[in-house]
Amino acid sequence: MYLFFLHALLFVVLLNGANVLAQNSSAPRPLTDENGNSIGLFERVVNLKDAQVVSFTGSSVQVVEQPAPFNSYYVFDEKMLNNKQYFQVGPNAALPPIGWIAADNVFQWSNNLVVVYNEPIDRHRVLFFENSLDLSWLLADSAQINSRSLSLINGQVSSDNGLVAMEPEKFVHWSNQHYLTPVLDFIQRGKPNQRDSSLLVKTAALPLETDSMLNNQVCNEEQRIGIVFVIDTTLSMQKYIDRTREMVEQLSANLLMQKDFAGRVQFGLVGYRDELGNNQNLEYRVKTYQALSLSNDPKIFGTVLDKMKSADYSTRGFEEDGLIGVFEATRMDWDPFRSKWIVLITDAPLRDAVKGTDNRTLSVQSVANILWDEKQIGLLAIHLQTPEAKKLHQISRAEEQLKILSKWPSSSITEPSYFAVENGAVDLFGRQVESKIIEVMNNLNRTLPQLIAEAKKGGAIPQHDLAQRLHWLGKCENNSMPRMIQGWSTDKALGTSNPQLNRKSFEPHLLLNRRQMRDLAAVLSDLLDTAKVEAISGETFFANLAKALGTASIDPSQINTTNVQGRLGGANLSQAQLGDFLPGYLAQLPYLSNFLTIQQQDWSGMTGREISDWLNKVEVAINNLERHSNRVESDYMKLHPNATSDEWTYPVLLTDLP
Fold first, then answer.
1. What is the pLDDT, as a whole number, of residue 279?
2. Which three-class secondary structure state does DSSP give residue 363?
3. pTM (2 d.p.)
4. Are the C-beta atoms of residues 320 and 272 closer than 8 Å to each other?
5. How far apart are CA 226 and CA 321, in angstroms?
6. Which runs of E-coded beta strand occur in 53-194?
7. Is the Cβ–Cβ distance between 113 and 182 less than 8 Å?
8. Per-residue pLDDT tens over the stretch 582-637
9. CB-hemisphere CA count at 13 Å for 591?
10. What distance in Å separates the CA atoms of residue 634 and residue 175, rounded to the nearest whole number?
11. Spatial contact of 92 and 15, defined as CB atoms under 8 Å apart
């Protein structure tokens, strides 16, 4: 986790340094951090309660703005007046400052890191303490940690324990109601990524919205299940398509006609094969046979499946374009459904880093992030481990990919909803799919306490269904984060029934605006174009990269060959790291990601497959940034009422970055 935070810091600094504003040389610009302009990290502050932005005219002071708590400002200058420190601030980096604010009425926040809380599945509520020492007391005794936290939650500990706030009893997710939880400081306890390690994080919290995202009519309606089958329709799959039709028809007869489920279950159907290339006999790469809709009639879904046929011709290899099928299913209208599931049926690995139907590059991880972080869709992976797949040694790679897709990135889910069908047995496959869908349907009618009890038993489907229920309730019940100015919490989930899993209570996200996303995407695009050329021509990657980035949309005075050689003491470019071509602050951080530590000799020593994988990761990151930058306005958060649209922000998962 510590490395994750440091990697996030690297990208935040890169983004802020890359934001060279379209201003003339005399226009004011926000200050950078104490290391100077070569660092390029803009200083920012967030105001506390009762803060005022004022102007000074001679001996008079005029109030310019009386902001509500938790507005974010850029810092343009600072000065002392009557032994009191003031910051000159403005809500937009590209516009002039609006006035001055007293330093004791703000806290400084420059890293753009925020935390988003995971679903409270089999864990206690997060506790916030006045200082890290109070929190350390709670964590000091591993045998007593769960009982201590429960005592605090129940108010059974005296008021001198330093507790200042706790997570709401009812779950609140950022996608349901925007809240700001900036990371002000953090302390690593133990070695990173070890079972007993944890991160102490100093945050602040405040809800930014009060209106429910869903109206009462929707919330009071009888809740529905949306299930989309995504099926591999290549040469070997016809018997599984037929068995799926039989299973769905049986479900319709036995369950869907019952009062509890009549009209509440809707199906969709997507088929996929592989890139057509010159093999037009494959007919399609991906095809939507039936989109998810409230008007669908489940009784006739079997006739829709009748239209799906396996291909008559083989594809170019054993891998298939399953990511495209899943991605196409995520683009359907899932909003009316509380329980949302994709059933992926395949016997083959998935092609990774492929172009989606919107021409953006997708990876297994990026599609997993779309499924949960953006759509809250569970994926039920049915892996047909056929004799042919075993013979071609294709089982382990497919299993790894499908487990990533079927385990939501949130570490509150302890296991993937992945199910292997040994030898691809058709009857076992049918019973497996039917039993899992029946379980999903039954969970819809369970009360929240019943579902919580099922989830605590560790089953994948109840945990996924509970997470979806909590998200839905968070929308409908208009829950909000605690109003807390500052406090220390831990990312270690407390109160879990299985502490060995080392689950996390929250995940770090990067709060980025459109300009930052597009600037980073532009820089990475220049890097990608140069790398593609040098992958062919060989030895001049770093030299040409310096030239390319020197003319990019970032400050060329910070990124060029002379600057790199100067920081390296005149050394040859062959000794430079990729991070050296970015602003100089990167070399001062204690940890660098693999992406930034690559040297010319590393690049020259890569195999063709390694270079291809590296290029794919960069391209996926570019497309993730572009996807986020093209979000609708309602997805974005305003850090100040007068912030221009290019300053609106969105919390990006760290796994969406390279």
1. 58
2. coil
3. 0.72
4. yes
5. 23
6. 53-57, 60-65, 72-81, 84-90, 99-102, 106-108, 113-117, 127-129, 163-166, 179-180, 183-189
7. yes
8. 544 334 433 345 666 777 778 778 888 888 888 888 888 888 888 898 888 888 88
9. 12
10. 10
11. no
